Amino acid sequence: MAAKKQTRHSKRQIEATRGFLEQAVSDYLKWMVESRYNSQTCTNYGKTLRQFITFVGRKRSAANEVFTLGTLNRFIRTHEKCYAHAIRGLSRYLYAQKRIPEPIPRVEYYLPEIYEDYLDYRKKIHHTPYRKRKQIKRVLAAFHDYLKKHKQGLRTLKIDHIDAFHAKFNPAFALGTQRLYRYHLRRFISYLYHQKGWLKKDLAPLMKGPPVYTRTKPPKFLRKKQIAAAFDNLTGLTAIDLRTYAMAHLAYFLGLRPQEIVQIRLSDISFKAAELTLEDRKNNIPTKLPLPERVVKAIAAYIIGGRPESKSQMLFVGHFAPYGPLLPTRVSTALGTCLKKVNRKATGYWLRHTYAQNLLEAGASYYDIKEMLGHDHIESTKQYLSIHIEMMRKVLFDEIL
Q1: In this structure, what CATH number is given to the domain that contains residue 193?
Q2: Based on the domain organization, do 235 and 286 belong to the same domain?
């Protein structure tokens, strides 16, 4: 009797999953039409998604098994002439609407329970966003593979094992990325000690990077004439020019990262108070920043004359269907293309470095600059700053560069 009850319950689950999926596909295809996707694309996506609904029903998949990389790969093997982008697009659409916890990942890392518990802890307790959890998972997967290869368990971990892992894993990355990955692993080690009691000693404070006595790549920033020339190059009348112009103002006058620029919503901007609210900076602390008049005008010019009609609440959107939010790489590329006209080595991040240098020149302390840049640690801020040649010549030689 109990077995039959369980079977009936399973059938109800499967029917509920199919009903959810059918409604989700209907909503997604309607959204594609409203977002002015190409009609042939909508037709192709619709065919693939209907095949996917049938496939999920035939496999009797539960709701939590639908939008996984494993399910997608099994579907592709069964239907070779399908549009996998349709299913990934559906998962991103549902994730953006908060109807599923995560979109389908590009790579699936299968980790032991303790690692998954930590990621769940970061999600529930620290509200760590999905993209950052993916980054953390990559580091933990590499760490787990290293320990497994060397037959080393977490409970008997020593600082020597961690140092050996960093020596092998980190050299392939830039210095800033190395610090970030070390930070992610440090938080996990701290979790093992404080939350789980797996370690006899807290090894996290011992995880320090090697001292940096010289900088092979000092921070790059632009001179005043170069900044003026860069902004002059952005005075075109096209919609994309207006978008890049507004982005450049946010990067130069507020020191925002590309990641922060793409996360700005229309509701975050108060034109009356000339103020911008950043809900989630890199250190997860909401911040209100004053908007200089030039920045307000640049944003207004883009909204009025450049921003296409879009249901997205994000300030910056794409200029091709579906007119959705941008990725940070789009901001970096747009700013970098503009800056290379005044300095062929420049990247979009040079505007943020220039912002930090301007604060230093204006007499701001390292602590003030740290707060304005949204850094967790003062060491991160110091990496952005170097001796300002103009200041040094003015003080020592009474020269103006």
Answers
A1: 1.10.150
A2: yes
